[in-house]
Amino acid sequence: MNLPLNSILCGDCFDLIRTIPSNSINLVITSPPYFQQRDYGGGIGNEKTVSEYLEILLALMAECVRVIKDDGNIVFNLGDKYEDSSLLLVPHQFALEVVRRCPLKLVNLITWVKRNPTPRQFKRRLVSSTEPFFHFVKSDQYYYDMDSFMANERPRKERNGADTRVGTRYFELIEQSNLTPEQKQLGRQKLIEVIQEVKAGKIEGFRMKIAGIHAEPFGGQAGGRQIQLDKNGFTIIRIYGNPIKRDVIEMSVESVKGSNHPAMYPVALVKEFLLLLTQENDVVLDPFMGSGSTAVACKQTKRHYIGFDLNPEYCAFAEKRLQEIIPHPPLLF
Ligand SMILES: C[S@@+](CC[C@H](N)C(=O)[O-])C[C@H]1O[C@@H](n2cnc3c(N)ncnc32)[C@H](O)[C@@H]1O
Asked: From residue 31, how far is each of 9, 58, 216, 220 by CA, in Å?
């Protein structure tokens, strides 16, 4: 059976996922309705007990395991619930049951830190401003592209690349300096090289110190820098920043014009997972597609999407939203 690539199917995900062939999906990424939080006009989420709710989600998880490829990934985002002023830890109960009952490993719990949580202040508790994303895999051979993820981690690449004036003031300062013609030539050459490094996102930035312009000596601890300054008439200090990718994603809750969906996750957040866990033309399934955030992220990053949602209004909105995104490249399937 052919995959319904790049379509959003309106219906019950428990029925629709059964039509997806085994081992055909690279990534399942989704955010199911949270336990007793909202009524989306039917569907799951308003079961009487947490265990009833979890049983339903676990049945879906079994299908997710079936449809993903052996090197595939599964990412589930869930929110928590207070009952009688006490947190139920529903997301954590879910993750524990998944690893207990499904042939899956839990690679990470990635925390989405909301920069703009709903501004409600409680008298005797703090405002919840995080949600977990659980990353599960079927085998240790799961697809993982840390390089592409890290490139995205450094938006400075784009920013610096777009800034055509980066470091240009130093060219003028080299000319104004008392360096010898040879020193000036070397200075210009090294300056061009370091500007390229910034534009390529390899370093955060740099400082150039030119003798006579930035006159102050480095002092006793400078060592090699002072030697470079004495010999070449300049020295360049590279700023590397901190490239460690942590299990935290800080991002604001999005609002999209015209959306009537109350619980959208940010497209940029989905893109982070797409870059880490898939490559171009891979197939991504979201069984609870809602307003289409996963599909939008896929279209923007040249991945194929398949989405389900029970609510026809959300399906229609998602389709409309997708029409405004730059078209997907020709299908290779
Ligand atoms: C938390 S929302 C997903 C929001 C989505 N991530 C977004 O960014 O818009 C959960 C969605 O699941 C849908 N839903 C609930 N039960 C369903 C079911 N059995 N089958 C398919 N969709 C269902 C709801 O209509 C709702 O849009």
From this structure: 16, 14, 57, 57
